[in-house]
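Q: Hi! First time doing this. I have a protein sequence and I read that you can turn it into a structure. Is that right? Here it is:
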Amino acid sequence: MNQKILIVDDDKNHSLMLTTLLHRKTGYEAVIKQNGKEALEYLSEENAAQRTPLVVLDINMPVMGGMETLEIIRQRYPDMPVIMLTGNQDMAQAVQAIKLGALDFINKPYEGERLAVTVRNALNMSSLAREVRRLNQTHEGTVTFESLIGHEAGLMQTLGVARKASAADIPVLITGETGTGKEVMARAIHGESNRAGSTFVAVNCGAIPSQLVESVLFGHEKGAFTGAIEKTSGKFREAEGGTIFLDEVGELPLETQVKLLRVIQQKEVEPVGAARLVPVNVRIISATNRNLTREVAEGRFREDLFFRLNVLQIEMPPLRERKEDIPRLAEHFITRFCARQAWPPKPLSESAIKTLKDHNWPGNVRQLENMINRALVLSDGPSLEVGDLILNQGAAENSQERQGNVRPAEQPAKSESEGMFIELFDDEGKIKSASDIEREALLKVLDYHGQNVTASAKALNMAKSTFYRKLAEAVQAE
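A: Yes, that's right. Below is the predicted 3D structure, encoded as structure tokens:
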């Protein structure tokens, strides 16, 4: 869903000139309407308002003028920024437009750079408003199925099962490859359930040291073990009355699986070092990228716990199977990243969108997000072009092995590690510059980790911000 600025002006020549100017200065395409009535009809079309980050509105038009149109836009779309244009030097008219909610008022003729600055500021405000609204929804626990990108397209079939899961207070197991959005789906199920007003607690089971798993999940008493200097309640009790999300549940040690089974059966937890059980009222949603049926067969996961967790299973489709959602996902990540950086958002060119849709995405949605963030850091133009995207189609060949955890990431197979070597000499036999070697190293590590910047930075023992900076410096020095 490519975003386009809405230009409303009955002067066709001016509209075409303005379209060219905005595209050159901001990278955005435009939709042209000749009066307020046409503009409002356009905005009422499905998804049109969502893909319109800004309206540039002339005041004097036939059928429905700018002031009347502005009032209606403010009522129907309160967060949509509007810039007013006029050929009259009427200060009273400008004051009225600002009072009605216009972001700015510009007289014709105007300087192109003056308008471009105003438009970029308006786009940035629009981006910030959407991000604040999203963060407020997440904070309030109001993530719903309709807020998921793909609810009307690539995720439609999956959401049919998820809606049934939200209506019944039963354990749910969400499966799928790494990076497909399992936690987002869990939050949406919680947000649509009768526990929506209560706490949602997410726990990454694979990130907890094995000796601390029980303490983190079930709590502990003061002095229960070395270092237990105070009593803790544990994640299950933190989620009392709400939902606990056990991500990477397949990573739990067998001894912890026994205790988790008892929690499900008896609805009680046993804090480490405690003399009595503590009742809990929580809903369990778990997730894994492992094949738990195979884990059960090989003795690494308890069969009785598997059946308890897998009352209803939801399979998250990989991004390569829902490519129709890629443009909207990319725009969402652009909006979010630019809002957090207080940068004006950059649109994707049509050729960049095609490139994204043609890619296989072994790292799924998470890889797409990381790639978009990196492209925004490195891009110098008003829009994201194909040259700003750094993709590695070949990484898909090894993605399925990684999803099944066949080998640790720090011990690549020979066929994969061979591609990690860096040649010190260029095609002319000269030693490459330090920046070229560093750039190649950064990109190879990034490709190996499926475009995951966090994992790549960790592998290189550097901060994520440092990784971004070094990559940007290496590319600029090329």
